Amino acid sequence: MADIAIPYQRLKTIFLDAGNTIVTMELSYLVEALEAAGIACDPVALRRAEAAARPVVSAALPTLRSTETMGTFEFYLREMLTRVSLTPAQSGETVARLAHDLAPLIDRVGRVAFWSHVLPGVPEALAGLRARGLNLTVVSNSDGTVERLLTEVGLRPFFDAVIDSRVVGYEKPDPKIFTHALETVGATAATTLHVGDLYEADVVGARAAGLHALLLDPFDDWPDVDCPRAADLTALVARL
């Protein structure tokens, strides 16, 4: 779908996913846990593997049913580890066991700390969106901690509202979470764009609620999707 499908100049509101849109995993926790198990992994390569795993996770969401379960996170980790070079090399069975053992790390560390890495250029991009007169709201599948996360990393002042799936009781791609967000900030679907990193949750859900949708694809891992894509929020700002 061409970018012309999004009326950039008529937009008044931007909804943003949190994970892998504004913040991402602090991968040092995973790298250190792997090192403790005697396995070396390049953090840069692991970051690339994370993005490459997203289309697989997205495609599996109708079966997984939620982005927020430990089972889904384990699946996510397995797909990441499958796509990165580990030293010494690990069999598929070992990688699956590693993912199972590593998944509880997110709760041991705490989800706020685990997702506390602000993506490069995000503060500047948010400031740029605000400078263009756009209202900004976070719409995130989370466990009730996303507002605290945004506060701790210093980004909460950019947003008019933070919609957390655990708090409101609806999880993307359920269009009800988007409808709730629209009502909360007094926005209309026709002039609202939602930006996120998972097609099944973010694009499918936003479209079902009548919003425009943009998929973040920093490494061109989604060449065949039927929606506009951008590498990051900086690229979005450049289109406005």
In words, what does this structure look like?
- The chain has two domains: 3-24 and 115-239, 3-Layer(aba) Sandwich (Rossmann fold), CATH 3.40.50.1000; 28-111.
- Strands 5-4-1-6-7-8 form a six-stranded parallel beta sheet, with helices on both faces. Strands 2-3 form a two-stranded antiparallel ribbon.
- The protein has helices at 28-36, 43-64, 70-82, 92-102, 105-109, 111-114, 122-131, 146-152, 165-168, 175-185, 199-208, 233-239, and strands at 13-16, 23-24, 117-118, 135-140, 161-164, 192-196, 212-216, 229-230.
- The two termini are 18 Å apart.
- The mean pLDDT is 96.
- It is α/β, with parallel strands linked by helices and 240 residues long.
- It has twelve helices and eight strands.
- The protein is globular, with a radius of gyration of 18 Å.
- Helix content is 47%, strand content 12%.
- Helix 8 (146-152) links the parallel strand 4 (135-140) and strand 5 (161-164).
